[in-house]
Amino acid sequence: MNTILVTIIYRMFLLVCFSLLGIIHAQDLKIEKLTRNFYIYTSYGTYQGKSYPANGMFVLSREGAILIDTPWNPKDYQTLVDTIRVRFKKEIKLVVGTHWHDDRAGGFSFFIQKDIPTYATSLTNKFLKENNMVVAENVLQINKIQNLGNIRFKIIYPGVGHTKDNILIWFPDQKVLYGGCFVRSVMAESIGNYKDGDPELWLKNMQWTRKTFKKAVYVIPGHDEWKGSNQLKRTEDLLIEFTSKK
Known about the structure:
By secondary structure, the protein is an alpha/beta fold. It is built from seven helices and twelve strands. A hairpin with a 2-residue loop joins strand 3 (50-61) and strand 4.
């Protein structure tokens, strides 16, 4: 009888452990409203053995949705498509990857299979190809106002930062600056992963970005908490601290 009881308790213990692991490694896609027709989604991936949030954004225009960056977790691809279709009554009309890492452009193959146009810069496509990843079907135009329906946006290349190919997306009418991984969260404690970039150039280019986008009302970082202000200043401060120690 004691043996049976011990076995039951042990199995219950394992079940609890596996459930907790599921919470850590399989957090659900989260969607929050930024401002009118702008939504931030957060997908969770694994980095250095830990669950880590990655922010993306979608914008609803009269003609459909603009998706900026693909979810980090592949299980979120279809969920995001379905949510935009069912909850917001829109189809995704284009997908933009803001650099070549898999938390930004790793889902291109899925969206291509769905016949949804994918976009990246020629430099991002170059790095995707070099790293045996699926490239975007279309090449983005830099520094030119583009639009989908009533939503205008501009692709900005600020220079080397987190990676050599990272871009920003500026929505002038709403004063929304999507920074991707070029911008650190106001809650960040470090500059994060920089092995594919250059911290000194990142600092220089971040200073240019701060001056250029003084009027930005919303600035969206690639990871961690996206709410609040001073994301650009926090990034600059972290880079100053890092480069001063070299």
